[in-house]
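Sequence and fold:
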Amino acid sequence: MTNVQPYLFFSGRCEEAIEFYKSTIGAEVTMLMRFSDSPDQPPEGMLEAGFENKVMHASLSIGGSPIMASDGCDSNESFKGFRIALTLPTEAETKRAFSALAEGGQVDMPLDKTFWSPCFGMLTDKFGLGWMVSVIDGPEG
């Protein structure tokens, strides 16, 4: 069986990001481990000072889709070259999620009707993560 999952590194803000996604889009934490909980400590110098109690690994479920997350080993990570696509069943839910995710971030393309969706928009959230948010169009989505 082959499985592909996004693994996001939040540069020391993972716990904050998890709480944000729990409150905005209903993310559920299925597992969380801190560096201090690991039975094997990272090699000397690998972990930025102050990251000992940061999130080493977390597994989340958003609408049944798995996403993995971590603080990473330092504060130098950034999200470039991709976006997370979030599709929702109704226009009202799409507007609510878009507005919540945009809080403290930046709207890159306001929600509007497109030829592929009755409601689609793009934003970059306060963690620098890009999102494409849309309503599912038709029974197949």
